[in-house]
Design goal:
Helices cover 34% and strands 21% of the residues. With 396 residues, the protein is of the alpha/beta class. The chain has 3 domains: 63 residues, no CATH class; 97 residues, Beta-Lactamase (2-Layer Sandwich); 226 residues, Rossmann fold. The strands form 2 sheets. It has a 9-stranded mixed β-sheet with strand order 9-8-10-11-7-12-13-14-15, with helices on both faces. A 6-stranded antiparallel β-sheet has the order 3-2-1-6-5-4, with helices on one face. Strand 1 and strand 2 form a beta hairpin. It is elongated and about 80 Å long.
Length: 396
Amino acid sequence: MSSGMGSATTPSVAPEVVEAVRERLARTPGELTPHRVAEALRDAGRPVGDATVLAVHDALRRDVLGAGPLEPLLRLPGVTDVLVNGPDAVYVDRGAGLERTDVRFPDDAAVRRLAQRLAGVGGRRLDDAVPHVDLRLGDGTRLHAVLAPVARPGTAISLRVPPTRSFTLEELVAAGTLTPETGRLVRAVVETRLAFLVTGGTGTGKTTLLAALLSLVDRRERLVLVEDSSELRPDHPHVVGLEARPANLEGAGALDVRTLVRQALRMRPDRIVVGEVRGGEVVDLLAALNTGHEGGCGTLHANSAVDVAARVEALALAAGLGREAAHSQLASAVDVVLHLGRPRDGRRRMVQVAVPTRRPDGTVAMVAAVEVGADGVPRPGPGAERLEELLARGAP
């Protein structure tokens, strides 16, 4: 689908003209000015009208500042992701699935230059020796890039746009992420201080929902957020954020999420929040939720709510926690799982709520308490009674 969302250069200027000017300017380094652009156009035997000079100057300026030709896409209302699959395929996600844009790059070398420049801004190396990078830029945008030929059909860039503000629960209901019934349910989960996980696949809105729920927390409570990359922006007056840090170019200075979870425990939190559980930090989060810190929460990648127990077990085993211990910790640490999906219409919505139950062998199974069908109507599942018990137990 073409959306008419802009192009890599001004339409009236051919890409080869911009490249010709770029090559000439590179031979004599200096500040990028319209005067130098005009001189380079004359040297290349190109037209030097005011409109052409300004168009080429604007194209080159976008290429050396910010995210280059992607900058207008990053400023689109509601955009969450900008994805580049080589020079000829640029997509955006504005909440209704991926949309192909009209943005093009002259060639893969131009995509590579942009990826390397953005990596350099973040203080990271990106070249044939280290052909991939994952970092957060100064404005909070998350950059992931893989150079060709490792990536096909060309250099791949993924930009995750940080939210400028937290959505309210009412806005999520209006957008269809929640129904009025599930909206009341998640509000009750927060108010009764149940420990919960928000789960789902990539781009399903886990961080958006979690931020909205944290905004409902009593203003007198202290929230300590631990994130690999700072994305949560809850509307709450007492938030302390801890962000992991990768190693520097010398391979030193790394600070992982596991370490930060342990630090959070010493910071007198009312609620501990792990922005995304990806690895061994699941052990520390489960331990934290089992030490009297009610209402703790986090997000986790999972295919469905009922798969959460197996997902937690796998992460815990990789971190050295035995299967029996992992299930025991999970059973006593997590009260509710809120699962998000993206049905065929591409819109994010909460599709399942589950609660843990013990099997006879001591392992945990997640049982659906609420199922939201394709018609958007929530229906009770076999775990509905258990969910009601949990909410009643936590009610003031």
